[in-house]
């Protein structure tokens, strides 16, 4: 009944905002077209004051937090949805009403096995913030010796959210299957893959121990850095549905007025954001993949060398060494507008099938990107170039690369944020030297020496075994040679035997034919009473019997 009620609510919202007008009816089977044409909701006019993107955004907001989150993720996929819809979906807010504090306190006590009064010296009943998955309360730990109690935030997952998520995911998946089945455009947009990405993302955010481990790793990667600060996680107070971490005081990165008020170096701030992104991707292969403005703050210390503060590490991305290398080489290639190299790298990396004709892919990439490069570099969106590049490659059956989708989304967020802070930001000028330096460090003499040092202990450990290993390998080689020779001899003998059998069968066939002919002549001679033919035929048969014996 709960599922039926939820489905009824979705249908009500669907018809209220006339989302059926977004469906490509001309691609549906005739029966469905007739059904849609006769549907009672067609009596409601399409809201003329709202465009299609606004109607979709308002519908998602009406359906609640799970659909809001889905719309937020969809807004980062302009390669899959039209630009006007993606732009409107970016306006979705994740500011939802908090759930009762009694439920939050009960869940904290259930997870940590103690009362809130035993766990914290102070605990704020009123939540500091509330989102679709969890809400946050402020607290203070008990003092340790002469040290005052540390200020912390307590993040609590919404009770029963898993059931809501699973129910809505099933409905989203059903709608995606219908879109794929009845729409060519739907197949191109890959809605099932989008829903699956969403499933993976949302369930990752539900386990706060995963988020805590991500935050700890990111904090370790930037330990002592003046670029990025990540709050400390208190693991003794962290479980799957509760996480306690250090409380930070910073300026929200979107609050430009406060940043200007403290005389922040905005150019430095924007460029440092780009440097943080590329450091996470290429140095650490571990990047915060949800860096929207709500998750980023700026430290109040040292405004001329501003430091970022990152929270909410529920979504992270990583790349393999191969992906790192191919991505860096791809970026450098289209920095230099070497489209053939870009195409070749797509084939070499396995992102497109090996059968792809490189010159055709290069030509398609050139046709899409060349007009973009006519603009000044400072006006070109690096993220949009990546979107155009991957969209073009998809026409050549490029498989969806989830790690690249996360990367693309994060890059778009970083670039948009950087240009909001400093409109003159030239991301290309910041990124290219970084990538060139990384390539030198990755493949230069220092990198080779470092790899040698890394492998040397293992080689030294195996050194005493090397003579035995070499002797065993040579013995196996000799045995292999003997086996190969034996096989060759057997093959030759088999071929000779087969040839002999074929010759014997040929002789037997000829002999049978000759004997049959001779007997036929003998029978004719006997019937006609010609003794000469009779003697000749008997002599011929006798000779053949002697020869073929």
UniProtKB/TrEMBL annotation:
Pfam families: ABC1. Keywords: ATP-binding, Cell inner membrane, Cell membrane, Coiled coil, Kinase, Membrane, Nucleotide-binding, Transferase, Transmembrane, Transmembrane helix, Ubiquinone, Ubiquinone biosynthesis. Its EC number is 2.7.-.-. SUPFAM superfamilies: Protein kinase-like (PK-like). Signal peptide: none annotated. The keyword Cell inner membrane applies. ATP binds at residues 128-136, 155. Its main location: membrane. Residues 91-345 form the ABC1 atypical kinase-like domain. The active site is at residue 290. The chain crosses the membrane at residues 533-548. Pathway: Cofactor biosynthesis; ubiquinone biosynthesis [regulation]. The keyword Cell cycle does not apply. It is a single-pass membrane protein. It comes from the Bacteria. It is found in: Cell membrane. Is probably a protein kinase regulator of UbiI activity which is involved in aerobic coenzyme Q (ubiquinone) biosynthesis. Belongs to the ABC1 family. UbiB subfamily. Belongs to the protein kinase superfamily. ADCK protein kinase family. NCBIfam families: PRK04750.1, UbiB. This is Probable protein kinase UbiB.
């Amino acid at each position: 009944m709960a599922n039926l009620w939820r489905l009824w609510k979705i249908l009500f919202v669907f018809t209220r905002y006339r989302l059926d007008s977004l469906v490509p009816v001309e691609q549906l089977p005739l029966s469905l077209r007739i059904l849609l044409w006769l549907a009672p909701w067609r009596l409601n006019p399409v809201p003329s004051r709202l465009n299609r993107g606004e109607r979709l955004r308002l519908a998602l907001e009406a359906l609640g937090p799970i659909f809001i989150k889905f719309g937020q993720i969809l807004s980062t996929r302009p390669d899959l949805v039209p630009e006007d819809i993606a732009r409107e979906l970016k306006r979705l807010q994740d500011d939802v009403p908090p759930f009762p504090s009694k439920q939050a306190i009960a869940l904290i006590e259930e997870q940590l096995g103690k009362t809130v009064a035993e766990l914290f010296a102070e605990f704020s009943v009123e939540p500091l913030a509330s989102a679709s998955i969890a809400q946050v309360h402020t607290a203070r730990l008990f003092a340790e010796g002469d040290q005052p109690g540390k200020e912390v935030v307590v993040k609590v997952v919404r009770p029963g959210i898993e059931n809501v998520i699973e129910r809505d995911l099933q409905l989203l998946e059903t709608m995606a299957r219908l879109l794929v089945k009845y729409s060519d455009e739907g197949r191109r947009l890959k809605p099932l893959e989008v829903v699956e990405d969403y499933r993976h993302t949302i369930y990752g955010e539900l386990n706060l121990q995963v988020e805590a481990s991500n935050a700890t790793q990111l904090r370790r990667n930037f330990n002592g850095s003046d670029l990025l600060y990540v709050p400390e996680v208190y693991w003794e107070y962290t479980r799957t549905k509760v996480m306690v971490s250090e409380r930070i005081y910073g300026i929200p990165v979107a609050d430009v007025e406060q940043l200007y008020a403290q005389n922040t170096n905005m150019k430095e701030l924007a460029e440092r954001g780009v440097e943080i992104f590329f450091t996470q991707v290429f140095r650490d292969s571990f990047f915060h993949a949800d860096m929207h403005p709500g998750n980023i703050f700026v430290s109040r210390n040292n405004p001329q060398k501003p430091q970022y503060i990152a929270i909410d590490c529920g979504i992270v991305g990583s790349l393999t060494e191969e992906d790192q290398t191919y991505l860096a080489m791809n970026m450098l290639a289209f920095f230099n507008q070497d489209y053939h190299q870009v195409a070749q790298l797509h084939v070499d990396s396995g992102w497109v099938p090996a059968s792809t004709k490189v010159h055709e892919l290069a030509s398609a990439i050139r046709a899409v990107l060349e007009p973009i490069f006519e603009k000044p570099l400072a006006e070109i969106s690096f993220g949009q170039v990546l979107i155009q590049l991957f969209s073009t490659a998809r026409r050549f059956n490029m498989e969806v690369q989830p790690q690249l989708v996360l990367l693309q989304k994060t890059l778009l967020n970083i670039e948009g944020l950087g240009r909001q802070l400093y409109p003159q930001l030239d991301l290309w000028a910041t990124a290219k030297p970084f990538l060139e330096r990384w390539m030198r460090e990755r493949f230069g003499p220092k990198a080779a020496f470092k790899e040698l040092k890394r492998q040397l202990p293992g080689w030294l450990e195996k050194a005493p075994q090397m003579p035995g290993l070499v002797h065993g390998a040579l013995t196996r080689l000799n045995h292999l040679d003997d086996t190969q020779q034996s096989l060759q001899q057997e093959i030759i003998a088999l071929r000779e035997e087969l040839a002999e059998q074929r010759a014997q069968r040929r002789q037997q066939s000829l002999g049978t034919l000759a004997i049959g002919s001779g007997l036929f002549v003998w029978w004719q001679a006997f019937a006609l009473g010609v003794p000469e033919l009779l003697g000749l035929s008997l002599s011929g048969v006798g000779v053949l019997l002697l020869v073929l014996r």
